[in-house]
Amino acid sequence: MVRRDRAPKAPTIYDVARVAEVSHQTVSRYLSGVSPLRPASRERVERAIRELGYRPNLSARLLARGESRTVVALTGELVEVGTVQLVEGVRRAARTAGYLLDVVTYDSSDAGELEQVLGGIVRQDVAGVLAIADTDQLRAAVERQPPGLPLTIAEHAPGSNTVEIQAAIARHLLDLGHRRVTYVAGPRDWRSARTRLRAFEEAAEGLECTRIYARDWSAAAGHEAAAEAGDATAIVCANDQIALGVTRALAERGLRVPEDVSVVGYDDMPESAYFSPPLTTVRQDFILHGAHAFRRVLDRLEPDASREPLPTVEDRLIVRGSTAAVRNSGK
Q1: Of the given ranges (22-26, 122-126, 139-143), which has the lowest mean pLDDT?
Q2: End-to-end Cα, the chain, rounded Å
Q3: Residue 306 and residue 190: Cα distance in Å, rounded?
Q4: Where is the HTH lacI-type domain positioned along the sequence (predicted)?
Q5: Angle 50-51-52 (CA atoms, 0-180°, nearest 5)?
Q6: For residues 53 and 60, what is the distance between their CA atoms, to the nearest angstrom?
Q7: 180-185 and 208-213 strand pairing
Q8: Are 24 and 12 in contact (CB under 8 A)?
Q9: The dihedral of CA 246, 250, 252, 253: what is its sign?
Q10: Among 133, 252, 124, 150, residue whose Cα is nearest residue 186
Q11: SS3 content of the chain, % helix, strand, coil (to 5)
Q12: Number of neighbours of residue 52 by Cβ within 10 angstroms
């Protein structure tokens, strides 16, 4: 018979109580915080926890308190790279704050499914809900729910430089001699898509700008939208996946990027530097954006708690090979 060494058991509150020379009820009271301990007892318990490397079972503690520390991140299908990275930022922030994150997805093309998902969340014991996708569909569905749904919508982070970054894109294209630009926005019912488009149009003084709304955030939608780009010398896309589809569609028409048409994306997903050519895009710190989104939830759940301010979000333009000077200004 081959003997296998068993992994050491994790210490329990009974181990902590034995080392601290107190009762396990005393350790439980310390962990729950429901009643103060004498300073000497508290010090012994804390020392024992450090010595043993004890980690409290968060779920058991919350069950004992009758509280929920679960926050639901509600989003459409996890197919868009930016959404996936944003959810990861939310997850990290939730974990740091001592909350569990439950990611719930729904088919964004099925309004009935969204209603069902929201109804199911209402019946669960959750501390709060963070809606990642800020769409008109979502807001309408929320309004039809019974009052009391603890929902927070992930909006632009405080200090977000959306207007400034769109101005930077416009200046970059103007400096390269572009005058006719097509902007391929995200889906029309997404507030973030409309916000970015509006910011670009406000910043695009000196540019002849045509707008197109993609049906979704995918490369396929960008490929489809490119057919309406007309004779633009530059195409600005609402995200990198749309830009990928646009680039493919241009190649199929015999147009080269950037020699014939410059292309700009948004998000700087990891693959963007490996497009052919590498994509000029806007780099977003999704982890920080996620932390800001969860901070709004935390401020709602723990309004009296003092917290260190988060760093300001500053997206920035990354210039790569997909943009170049206009070769023929008469095009």
Answers
A1: 122-126
A2: 81
A3: 33
A4: 11-65
A5: 95
A6: 18
A7: parallel
A8: no
A9: positive
A10: 133
A11: 45, 15, 40
A12: 16
**b/e 215-233 (16+ beta carbons within 10 angstroms → b):** ebbbbebbbbbbeebeebb
Contact 281/320 with Cβ under 8 angstroms?
yes
List the domains of the chain with CATH numbers: 13-65 (1.10.260.40), 70-153 (3.40.50.2300), 162-284 (3.40.50.2300)
C-alpha to C-alpha distance for 18 and 26, rounded to whole angstroms:
11
d(CA 276, CA 320): 11
State pLDDT tens for residues 144-188.
776 666 777 777 766 567 889 999 999 999 999 999 999 999 999
Tokens of 171: 């200046």
DSSP for 239-251?
A: SHHHHHHHHHHHH
Give the contacts of 257 (CB within 8 A, at least 6 positions apart).
247, 250, 251, 263, 277, 322
Q: What is the pLDDT of residues 194-249, one digit of tens each?
A: 988 998 988 888 889 999 999 999 999 999 999 888 889 999 999 999 999 999 99
Nearest residue to 176 via CA among 207, 211, 210: 207
Strand partners, 282: 317
Strand partners, 129: 72, 151
User: How do 151-153 and 208-213 pair as beta strands?
Assistant: unpaired
Q: How deeply is 254 buried, as exposed, middle or buried, from its count of CB atoms within 10 A (0-12, 13-18, 19+)?
A: exposed
Which helix (H) or strand (E) segment is 54 a member of? Answer: none
User: How is residue 197 written in tokens?
Assistant: 């488009």
Residue 149, classified by CB atoms within 10 Å of its CB into exposed (0-12), middle (13-18) or buried (19+), is middle
Cis before 277? omega within 30? yes
User: Taking the complete model, does pTM exceed 0.90, yes or no?
Assistant: no
In whole angstroms, give the CA distance from residue 268 to residue 280.
8
270 three-class SS: helix
